UniProtKB/TrEMBL annotation:
Domain Putative DNA-binding: 11-106
Official protein name in the record: Putative DNA-binding domain-containing protein
One Pfam entry name: DUF2063
Organism superkingdom: Bacteria
Family annotation (InterPro entries): DUF2063 (IPR018640), DUF2063_N_sf (IPR044922)
Length: 274
């Protein structure tokens, strides 16, 4: 690497630090790095970029985590966002990835992280789950999907059905999907009590949907995802749950097969190449 490239890399690192942690940059270094403006000092010129940069990234996080913003309130969310941006600055050419590490950062930096699980604050668990759901939902907006190709109908053979590519199986400690959609509908829900929740998030025809499912359905779909063999998954979930195989087949055929196919849970194996 050339000396000029080393200097450029060093300057770029310094600049990102100056933008995300303005208090850590001294005026002398700024004056030695930038020229002043006609009416502003070098520090004042940089301060304009510092404020606009943080405000732009904070706004981006508000858009990616609207229910978390609602739950925390504007002031507290801004505090969380600023701390997150200092610890996890943007590392991608697209701001779509800005919130990628936010749920994990919330969990890792919770103030009660050293306490036994039974002594931890429940509202923090809720916030981690809510941010996780919002991130799961957001990342599917641009994930590889099945748009432009045929979807199966109820005449499809069970052995050919596999989960579609733009689908996530999720589980949380709180009903965060309900909370999120209440917020998006313009209502002001109370923080819910702890209740294990399971859901399927998918995108079909460029629209993202969330479907609540039972724990057993979640386990069954997880088997289908792992094995890519729906008939074998029926037998496996029957053995795991202690039901007869015939009973599980009846449940599949008469309760969930049609609505799941029509919702876009599945594509046919031949359509996606085996």
């Amino acid at each position: 690497m050339s000396v000029d490239q080393d200097r450029l890399d060093s300057l770029q690192r310094w600049m990102i630090e100056a933008l995300i942690a303005p208090d850590g940059v001294d005026a002398d270094t700024i004056a030695a790095t930038f020229l002043p403006g006609p009416k502003l000092s070098a520090s004042a010129c940089l301060a304009i970029y510092q404020r606009s940069y943080i405000l732009r990234l904070r706004k981006c996080l508000e858009e990616q985590f609207p229910a978390s913003y609602h739950a925390l309130g504007a002031t507290l969310f801004a505090d969380f966002a600023d701390e997150y941006l200092r610890a996890c600055p943007s590392d991608s050419y697209t701001l779509h990835e800005l919130g990628r590490r936010f749920p994990e950062w919330l969990e890792d930096n919770r103030p009660d992280r050293d306490q036994p699980p039974e002594q931890r604050e429940s509202w923090i668990d809720f916030m981690v789950d809510l941010a996780s759901y919002e991130r799961d939902l957001y990342r599917l907006f641009d994930a590889q999907g099945h748009e432009g190709r045929p979807w199966p109908d109820v005449s499809a053979d069970d052995g050919a059905l596999v989960l579609q590519p733009c689908l996530a199986l999720v589980a949380y400690r709180y009903p965060v999907a309900w909370y999120y959609h209440e917020v998006r509908a313009g209502r002001s829900p109370q923080l819910p009590v702890a209740m294990r929740s399971y859901a399927v998030i998918l995108r079909r025809d460029f629209l993202t949907h969330t479907y609540p499912v039972t724990r057993l359905h979640h386990e069954f779909l997880s088997l289908v995802k792992r094995t890519r063999d729906l008939p074998a998954s029926v037998e496996a979930i029957a053995a795991e749950a202690g039901y007869s195989v015939d009973a599980v087949w009846r449940s599949w055929r008469h309760e969930v097969r049609r609505p799941w196919i029509e919702a876009g849970f599945f594509v046919e194996r031949a359509v996606i190449g085996g």
